[in-house]
Structure formats: C-alpha cells, structure tokens
Amino acid sequence: MSVVGGRARLRWGVVAAGTALLCGLPALIAAWPVPASALSAAQLRARILASADVPYQGYAESDVNLGLPNLPDLSSVSTLLDGSTDQYAWYRSPDQWRADVITAAGEDDIYQTAQGTFLWDYTRNLFTQVLGAQPARLPRPADLLPPALARRLLGYAGQATGVSRLPTQRVAGVDAAGLRLIPEGSATTISSVAIWADPTTGLPVEVEIFGRGVSVPVLVTRFLDLSFSRPALATVTANPGPGVGFSTTRLPDVAGVLNGFGPPLPDRLGGSDRVANPGGLQDVAAYGTGFARFAVLPLPHRAGTEALTTASSVGAAIPMRGGSAVLIRTPLLTMVLASPPGGPVYLLTGAVTAGVLESAATALLADWR
After folding, report:
1. Which regions of 54-161 does DSSP assign to beta strands (E)?
2. pTM of the predicted model as reported, rounded to 2 decimal places
3. Residue 366 — left, alpha, or beta (φ > 0 → left; ψ -120 to 50 → alpha)?
4. Is the pLDDT of residue 201 over 90?
5. What gap in Å lies between CA 296 and CA 266, rounded to an integer?
6. Where along the chain do its domains lie?
7. Which tens digits make up the pLDDT trace of 248-263?
8. Same topology between domain 41-250 and domain 254-368
C-alpha cells in the first residue's frame, strides 16, 4: 500500500465517519437523557392554564384520524379532522397572532389582530377581513396548535378528571414536563389526554388524545421547531402587498339563522344539565360536564336535509319513535342527526358515547310532539 493511497483512504474514512455521525445526530439528541421536572401535576396544570400570554414562534404538525364523513358545507372540517396539518405559527398574545397552513397549492393564513380577523388565500391572491363577532364557529387549523388545544382541553376537564404526571420528554428542543388527564365515568369516548409543556413557562408543546379501546392516539399535535422569542409586530400584521386583492366579509347573523327552528331547547337533556352557551344563541346548547359534554343545534332546512341524507348513506339508522335518526361513530367524536316529521334536523355531537346522544335525541323528538 502506498503512503499516498493510505492517506487518501484515511481522509475518506474520516469523511464517512463524520457523515455517519451527522446523520445519526438527531437520534442521539433524542436519546439523550432528559432531566425530570420537580413540578407536581397541580403546579404544571396551573402553569399551562396561565400560559396564554407566553409568546412563541414555531412549526407544528398535527395528525388526526377520526374517519368523519364529508358532510355538506363541512368539507374543510372533515379534512382538518381526518389527516395531517402542517402550520407555522407566530404568537405575541391572545389578540395578536398568525398561523400559516401549508397546503399542496401554497398556504392559507389567518391573522388575529386588534382590527379583527384576516384570511389570506394564496391560490386566489386575496386578503379578506372578517367583520362581526363569532359567538359560534367551525374548527380551524389554529385550534390544533398545541398551546390552544391543551388549554381548551384543560378548560373542559371537570373536577372529577384525574390529573397525574407523565415522564419528561424532549419536544422541539424543550425538556417538556408531562401531564395526564383521565376522565371519570364511562360517558365520554376519551380514555386519556397527554400534554407536555415547558416547565418554566407552561407553554404546551405536544398533545395526544386517546379514544377508548384504541392503543394509539387518535389525535397528535406537536411542535417540530419552537422558539420562545416574541415575534415582531409586523409579522402578525395583515399587510397586503401591491397587486394583492382585498375584500371584506361580514359574518352571518348566526343567532338569526339558527334560532327559532323549533321549541326552545330544555334545561336538561338525556340526563345532563345545560351549560352556558354563547350569548344570543338560544337554540344552540351544550350539555354535560367535563369531557362528557355534547352540543345540540338545529340545522337550517336545506343544510339539515342534505346532512341527514349524506349521514344516512354512511351512518347507522337508529330506531326511534316519532322521527328518524342516524348515528355516526368515530374513535373520538360521535354524531347523531335526528328529525321529527315536519321538524328541523337536530345535530348532536361530542366526545361522548352513542348511548348519551341517542338518549338526548329521543328526548328532543318527544318534546317536538
């Protein structure tokens, strides 16, 4: 072997070893021991609930597998709750933030500002300002960001929900402390919720939701990249550039659309008490406590008829006196569409068992008579 040949092999060997080390670095970092947090479950829960003012910017990925059918006018919700969503987020405060959803065609952005909500449609090259209050709205991608989802779940959790610590794990470079929620009783389809958060600020970085009888989570959302630096105000300000279209749209009068389709919803339904609902929406109601909470609303005639027809083709008919009803069951969400003869189509939905909604639907149709 020549000296030159041996040195060349040595150099290439060093390069190969260095390349292998770089390729394996993420796995090595992930496997590096994570220091445990001394916070109790109650302390961690309190910090998470108090983290709404913690600024951050990052990249998050959400995976949801509910198997929802594509109901009329709800295709965006079906896509959101049945697939993967990647989004960048810049968060200064509850009233100043931005989330960009990455799509096959480009991106769809939402800005929350002091002047209201703005939407950016990349494919149409259009900014839209949304005017009016939102007492009720459909889920949107930003709701799946770990901080927003974790705080909402903790807000729903009742006093009877068991709370305990989980081992610390590293998420997006954060040594995150874990919290487990276990609902009491059998009325909800949720078996447990796992939340990991930065122990110092309380900012949630990962959330997992498990359905009953399912060994893997049906919903996982986590940051893949995260910084606690405060985004610049210009970053979260809707500022259409030259050549970008701009329009305004006013939210429909939800109360006017939904109210008055049938008799007032009762104070108790299916064995559950009614809880506070958005102002002005008399015929949109929520019942139950903790994770065993479900919503009831009457659908406008055309949307209700189309939804019931679609649901009948993918769901299971429920024998019910005084009307017709269809059940759609997923590992997490359950829906029942029920209608008395000549009456409205009621949508009942929540992370509850089929029996809870069937009981409520039976009572609704009985009240109609």
Report:
1. 56-65, 82-93, 96-102, 107-113, 116-121, 126-131
2. 0.83
3. alpha
4. yes
5. 11
6. 41-250, 254-368
7. 876 544 444 444 555 6
8. no
Residue 352 DSSP class: B
Phi, psi of 90 (to 5 degrees): -130, 120
Overall CATH class of domain 254-368: alpha beta
Sign of the CA dihedral with 238 first, then 244, 248, and 249 last: negative
Superfamily of the domain at 41-250: Lipoprotein localisation LolA/LolB/LppX (2.50.20.10)
Q: Work out whether strand 345-350 and strand 334-339 pair parallel, antiparallel, or are unpaired.
A: antiparallel
Residue 299, pLDDT above cutoff 90 = no
Q: Calculate the dihedral angle through the C-alpha atoms of 34, 38, 43, 49, rounding to the nearest 10 degrees.
A: -20
pLDDT on residue 279: 52
Checking if the pLDDT of 115 tops 70, the result is yes
Cα separation values, 365 from 71, 169, 335, Å: 22, 49, 16
What number of other Cβ atoms are within 10 A of residue 293's Cβ? 19
Of residues 22 and 284, more confidence is placed in 284
Give exposure, 231-268, as e/b (b: 16+ Cβ within 10 Å): beeeebebeeeeeeeeeeeeeeebbeebbebeeebbee
Q: Which amino acid is at 325?
A: A
**Token pair 């008919």 is at which residue?**
317
Helix H or strand E segment including 210? strand 204-211
> CB–CB of 58/225 below 8 Å?
yes
Q: Which two tokens stand for residue 233?
A: 């105000």
Between 11-15, 48-52, 181-185, 349-353, the lowest mean confidence (pLDDT) is in 11-15
Mean pLDDT, rounded, of the chain: 84
